[in-house]
Amino acid sequence: MNTAKVAIAAQRLYSHLHRFGAPPEMIFPLLCPVRESEWIPDWQARIVHSRSGYAEARCLFATGPADQETVWYTVAFEQNRYIRFVRWQPDGVLVDLQLTVLPATHNETELHVVYQFYAVNDAGRKALVKYDEKYWQDMMQTWQTLLNHYLTPTDSR
Length: 157
Prior knowledge:
This protein is of the alpha+beta class. It has helices at residues 24-27, 122-128, 133-151; strands spanning 11-20, 45-49, 60-63, 70-78, 82-88, 93-103, 109-119.
């Protein structure tokens, strides 16, 4: 008889709800490894596998320097509504990232962001410490600021 060994990884779970003054059809395409370079300074993704060249189910891409690459895999994709990535980081942390885009009021979108960080080894347990509440709040504020700036017409800047 085989017996399974239960293992619970050290982890952190965070969620945040953003609201943007644009329709889901405008927000969702920006959550793509290629299109993120339009609103995130210095963002560079190397597409490893994608039939369309953009975000889609089973898209595989990498970010960061070659010797410290973070590898991302698109687990689920529903156009203009939902995308889920899993990423492996060289610090021993695996991240499950879920983005749900929902219409709010006329011409507004809610973006629900869920991150779950898992430590997969001793290095990951040490690295997990930096992914605290302050890190999370700062990251979500940065997302809000960058996307709002991108969505602001250039003639009003």
